[in-house]
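For reproducibility, we list the full input for the nicotinamide-adenine-dinucleotide complex.
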Amino acid sequence: MADPVPGSVLARMGASGVCGSDRHVLDGDWKLPLPTVRGHEGAGTVEAIGDGVTDVAVGDHVILSWFYPCRRCTACLSGKSYVCTGSRSEECLLPDGSSPLTLDGERVFPYLTVGSMSEYAVVPEAGAIRIPEEVPFDVASLIGCSVATGGVGLSIIMALRLVGANPIIAVDLSEEKLATARKFGATHTLVPSDGLAEEIAAITGEGAAYAFEAIGRVQTIESLPSLIAAGGKAVIVGLPPEDSPVSIDALALAESGKSLIGSNYGSTVPGRDFPRLAALYLAGRLPVDALISHRIGLDDVNEAFDAMRRGERARSVIVF
Ligand SMILES: NC(=O)c1ccc[n+]([C@@H]2O[C@H](COP(=O)([O-])OP(=O)(O)OC[C@H]3O[C@@H](n4cnc5c(N)ncnc54)[C@H](O)[C@@H]3O)[C@@H](O)[C@H]2O)c1
Ligand SMILES: [Zn+2]
Ligand SMILES: [Zn+2]
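The corresponding predicted structure, in tokenized form, follows.
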């Protein structure tokens, strides 16, 4: 691990969540620079700062963001840093084009310029967001991905309850997950079947106003428009493997005025929204700690991925 280059900071990890996106990388679903240190949902303490860093100081508690804004492109300048075109986070590189990691002299890439499944990480200053010290690291780590993105269906349910949505219908294959969904505010739970659209219409009257796909399955994404009412919005949050085209009845979509939209990082502006989500947690309005089903050591991470493949567990969090 190299010392932080100008504009970057060294963080000692407090906790790292185990996210479905790490599993995609492990299973080869997406092409990424390799070899990689995975983990992109981390929080920790700033141990050292590179030249020119002013946003954070040594000792600050920070949430690491897997999309660091360049702060110069049109998206960033219009407040949409979640679709920044100048960031090098997808190349897993610091803004100066370097990687802080090597193994036996060869370059190693921290996944999304985070690499939080490691005791230490060097990240860009713009990707280290200061939060109050009262927020525990395990909770803070989840704010860095699953809570901000709604990347876990349970986070979507938490957000829906927070904004007063009713009814809130959760759909999952696993009865265990559905029981958890009820605790987070789902008013109805359903196991998917051929009659899903009719079941949802029976609960909502004319179909849902919004539907969110949080699995990353082509067939489920294709079914979304049938679940929403005319004029409704269907949101793709789950990420399928690369090269997964979906087929949509374009005529029906247009005639019913439905929208099918993508969501990246929950349209989060990390510097604005991470402290806001942390404050909602501290105020008792966002029960992020309840998402954590397992606190594990770094050595237990493969077991956590296996459990995920079996559709088990809410969130596993590595605690350092
Ligand atoms: N858009 C973004 O910014 C963003 C961010 C983070 C994660 N993600 C993506 O979100 C997806 C989910 O991530 P996760 O960490 O919650 O994974 P997870 O494995 O913990 O959760 C997936 C859930 O889907 C359920 N499921 C599986 N097959 C199903 C089916 N056929 N019908 C109904 N339910 C089914 C499982 O039981 C499980 O509860 C992944 O594809 C991940 O890459 C997207
Ligand atoms: Zn994630
Ligand atoms: Zn940008």
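The CA atoms of residues 193 and 199 lie 9 Å apart. Residues 8-149+266-319 form a domain with the Quinone Oxidoreductase; Chain A, domain 1 fold (CATH 3.90.180.10). Both points were considered when choosing residues for closer inspection.
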